[in-house]
Amino acid sequence: MRKKIVAGNWKMNKNLAETGELIAAMKRNFENALEADIIIAPTFTNLYYAFEECKDLKVKVAAQNMHQEEQGAYTGEVSADMLKSIGVETVILGHSERRAHFGETDALLAKKVNTALAHHMTVIFCFGEELKDRKNKEHFSLVKHQLKNGLFHIKDEDWDNVILAYEPVWAIGTGETASPEQAQEMHAFIRKTISEAYSTKISDNVSILYGGSVKPNNAKEIFAKPDVDGGLIGGASLDAKSFVTIANAIS
Ligand code: 13P
Predict the structure, then answer these.
(1) pTM of the prediction?
(2) Second label for 47, Cα 20 to 30 Å away, from 24, 39, 82, 249?
(3) pLDDT of residue 98
(4) Residue 201 CA, distance from chain mean position
(5) Active centre residues (catalytic)
(6) Cβ partners under 8 Å of residue 20, min gap 6
């Protein structure tokens, strides 16, 4: 079912003590009944702690990555089963930083998606163009390509466990956000692409988040667009007040 969602991707920030402080500050700030589902994605070492701390809140905890294999000789990696065993049922896959710094390809991401879905996890699937793609007017075809190659092999019923996050790379951590019109234009295109590959029932039901320099002062305008169902927040999710203000910008 299509939902309003605000998710915080903490990236490689916050040690254990800082994670505790941020969650405590979030708890103090979550006074109002929120319209949106809230997800936070701390780093692996703090996931179990975060899960325990957030149990009594309307906040889900997600991992930022996951390995595609079930288990075995993959030093340094974390499996779906390990995440599920500590209560983590949601995983971010395909973030542009994973694609750029860790060589994650569409083909690899397709495997990770399969593993997560086989474990009945929810996937937050990230994708988005670089500045050069937009300058060359190739942003629509690039996004379509990423969706087709990383995700469009899944079955109709799998879409219930997928959240999309459109994150134009040029807007991530740069302070330069896509305009609400640019976000809406791309989100409508994404929905159309899904309806062509699957059905309008599926494209109408999927939540599509926008990510890239969402801040308390621009969230309301972006979230007001009809095809934007919320946000995946980086920098501003590391400050409780900013994150809660952004979460409250959903109406
Ligand atoms: P910023 O909000 O810091 O631009 O990061 C967005 C992001 O990458 C979320 O996954």
Answers:
(1) 0.97
(2) 249
(3) 98
(4) 22
(5) 95, 167
(6) 49, 53
Report residue 47 as tokens.
Answer: 């996931």
Residue 60's H or E segment, with its range, is strand 59-63
Residue entry with tokens 């409250």: 248
Q: Where do we find the tokens 């990555």?
A: 65
Q: Which amino acid is at 124?
A: I
Ligand 1 pocket check for 233: Cβ under 6 Å: yes
Kindly give the distance from the C-alpha atom of residue 96 to the centroid of ligand 1, in angstroms, as a whole number.
10
User: To test ligand 1's pocket by mutation, which of 5, 11, 14, 99 has the most ligand atoms within 8 angstroms of CB?
Assistant: 11
Mean pLDDT by 10 residues, the chain (251 residues): 95 98 91 82 98 90 98 98 98 98 98 98 98 95 98 98 97 88 98 98 98 96 97 97 94 79
